[in-house]
Known about the structure:
There is one protein chain. With 233 residues, the protein is of the alpha/beta class. It contains ten helices and ten strands. Strands 6-7-8-3-9-10 form a six-stranded mixed β-sheet, with helices on both faces. A four-stranded antiparallel β-sheet has the order 2-1-4-5, with helices on one face. Strand 7 (154-158), helix 7 (166-181) and strand 8 (185-189) form a beta-alpha-beta unit. Helix 3 (93-99) runs parallel beside helix 6 (136-148). The longest helix has 16 residues, at 166-181.
Amino acid sequence: MLSVRGLQAAYGSGQVLFDVGLEIADGEVVTLLGRNGMGKTTTVKCIMGLLKPDGGTLTFADRPIGGAAPEAIARLGVGLVPEGRQVFPTLSVRENLVATAANRLKRAEPWTLERIYALFPRLRERAQQGASTLSGGEQQMLAIGRALMTNPRLLILDEATEGLAPVIRREIWHCIEALKETGQSILLIDKNLAILKRIADRHYVLEKGRTVWSGTAADIERDADRVRAYVGI
Length: 233
């Protein structure tokens, strides 16, 4: 579904990505691991069209997307839950969800308000509440719900549980596991390797803007010292 090969990118004269490669097949959950500042979020920006690559290739559903406009990539079926959540603060919970609602891929069972409320009951309770008044965890639930309302083929979660209370993190992980059971393709960026090993099918590790390791959870166990050195845990 998604193929990234030899990706290079920079901010002005400062090159950040030198050789990033990863692939996600239909129905897979894949992680992008690495310490802060290694290029994970920059990779996501390139995938989403928020930063124009300087080299390499990006394809989604066999279509080239390197340098394409963000709205064009979103219409192809890529949904993003950005780092920092970025919900619409002046809109209510319900308005945030319906603002992005679409079923461009004509799914037989698309995501609806009721399905989102079933996944996150707290959002039903706060449907008319302003998004800016929600807790950080509730805003993260809203950001995930908003992305799902676009009915994406691929859902990208950048730092899905960062800064959240343990009880909220558990809810988010439960949600991600439930999404996996539905066959949702997911690219996950997070630091909780213990949980990621259980949930994800495959893993990629970035170090200084390069993909330096890839493998399954079993591969991580066999190469544990090397992976820990890269990830910093």
